[in-house]
């Protein structure tokens, strides 16, 4: 493990660490007038940028005594806890956070559609796409960190979404188990070491979707910190035509390049690169 990765202590990944019980939760509060003023100022200017975002977010929560905030974002609700999670900072301060990626996926997932989110965290992609899929659609959200899955389920409940299937599991090319590791002390950046022992289940994407009863995939997002080739390539190569997503958003390891296994698999299955954002590459299949 590189020096910037370290084991994530059990107190951080345990689902028992989720603050506030139930969708309403006794510990949340709307922003105070002062908090809202700071949020509005940041959203309107340069303070929403990444270099300032964490500091401003911490100040917002400090002004409220550290209490969680329920924040609306793209028509859904997130309970933000002010912890070590870069995704929370983006949701709090930037209404256009990852907008290009989300809008691209929305082009494939309409009412009744099916979206799969591998590396879902608290639901940045899952919840807006679940809302677009509607009551007859499905969203399958997968994350190796059980704490993030508990928070995602709570956010889905707060948003009135009953079509989200949340699964606490790592995804790879085989079945097994492993240990969690965190990078840069940020709960949003978590990976699994496939040790063969440990509390985190490791499953294939095909098996997870079969267990969830999924027979069609319209859109897929994957961001699992370098495990993309092991997780996605076997799925694409074995998938029936209806299981091949129309659109895929995938984290790229460096600007202008994608994971080699996924790049080759995309070519085999008729995907074309339609664009790149700061962190992700956008792929479409066929004429979509």
From TrEMBL:
<dbReference type="InterPro" id="IPR052514">
    <property type="entry name" value="SAM-dependent_MTase"/>
</dbReference>
<feature type="compositionally biased region" description="Basic and acidic residues">
    <location>
        <begin position="1"/>
        <end position="12"/>
    </location>
</feature>
<dbReference type="Pfam" id="PF05050">
    <property type="entry name" value="Methyltransf_21"/>
</dbReference>
<dbReference type="InterPro" id="IPR029063">
    <property type="entry name" value="SAM-dependent_MTases_sf"/>
</dbReference>
<dbReference type="InterPro" id="IPR006342">
    <property type="entry name" value="FkbM_mtfrase"/>
</dbReference>
<feature type="domain" description="Methyltransferase FkbM">
    <location>
        <begin position="117"/>
        <end position="272"/>
    </location>
</feature>
<feature type="region of interest" description="Disordered">
    <location>
        <begin position="1"/>
        <end position="30"/>
    </location>
</feature>
<protein>
    <recommendedName>
        <fullName>Methyltransferase FkbM domain-containing protein</fullName>
    </recommendedName>
</protein>
